[in-house]
């Protein structure tokens, strides 16, 4: 399934996003991202419903630049932020910044799981998440989260991410330890 055309149209209308999306090496991930689709089990309700409004996260789209036949090491996620995410005037709440970084990091692992490029990748949970807040994340604005798979040790996956504004300024940085678990342990 391709991304919702409204999200693609939204981002292509923003010049710096269009430059990223129109690059010959860019592959827009075949989605909508599952966490943006309401699920009767209430799984992912935060991104599927609570944070999917015109004044929270109005548009979200991920893309990769890696070969489809090898593990994807990096995924970029474009996110448009609205004022209902604020903790301070015109500034995204720090907890929301951490949540967005955590979600974007998950896309690197989930996409590899879908493609079967990382053998043995099961269900994943965040075991440790560290965020460095470098500058205020202003609203409204569109940002990009560049999430990278840094290291694999058994069932442990180290992922890092930078949240950047349209000029490439790093506003926040995250590092996380993800662990593959069995469904029974969830």
The CATH topology: Thiol Ester Dehydrase, Chain A
**SS strand fraction:** 35-45%
What's the CATH superfamily, by name? Hotdog Thioesterase
Distance between the termini: 28 Å
CATH classification class: Alpha Beta
Largest sheet: 7 strands, antiparallel
The number of helical segments is: 4
Coarse shape: globular
Order of helices and strands: HHEHEEEEHEEEE
Average pLDDT, all residues? 90
Helix content: 10-25%
Question: Any guess at the CATH architecture?
Answer: Roll
Instruction: Decide which structural class fits the backbone.
Output: alpha+beta
Strand order of the largest sheet: 1-2-3-7-8-9-6
Query: What is the strand tally?
Result: 9
Task: Output the radius of gyration.
Answer: 16 Å
Count of distinct structural domains: 1
Stretches with pLDDT under 50, minimum 5 residues: none
Throw out a few tags for this protein:
Thiol Ester Dehydrase, Chain A, alpha+beta, single chain, 9 strands, 37% strand, 186 residues, 7-stranded antiparallel sheet, 4 helices
How would you characterize the overall build of this protein?
With 186 residues, this protein is an alpha+beta fold. The longest helix is centred in the middle third of the chain and has 22 residues, at 94-115. It has one domain (5-185): Hotdog Thioesterase (Thiol Ester Dehydrase, Chain A), CATH 3.10.129. The chain contains four helices and nine strands.
């Amino acid at each position: 399934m391709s991304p919702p055309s409204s999200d693609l149209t939204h981002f292509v209308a923003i010049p710096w996003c269009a430059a990223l999306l129109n690059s010959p090496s860019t592959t827009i991930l075949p989605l909508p991202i599952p966490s943006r689709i309401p699920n009767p089990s209430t799984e992912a309700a935060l991104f599927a419903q609570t944070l999917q409004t015109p004044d929270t996260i109005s548009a979200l789209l991920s893309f990769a630049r890696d070969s489809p036949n090898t593990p994807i090491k990096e995924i970029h996620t474009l996110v448009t932020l609205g004022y209902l995410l604020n903790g301070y005037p015109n500034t995204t709440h720090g907890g929301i910044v951490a949540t967005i970084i955590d979600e974007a990091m998950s896309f690197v692992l989930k996409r590899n799981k879908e493609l079967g490029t990382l053998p043995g990748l099961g269900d994943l949970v965040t075991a440790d998440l560290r965020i460095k807040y470098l500058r205020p994340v202003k609203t409204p604005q569109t940002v990009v989260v560049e999430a990278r798979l840094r290291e694999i040790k058994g069932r442990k996956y180290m992922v890092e991410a930078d949240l950047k504004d349209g000029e490439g300024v790093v506003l926040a940085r995250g590092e996380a330890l993800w662990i593959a678990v069995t469904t029974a342990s969830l």
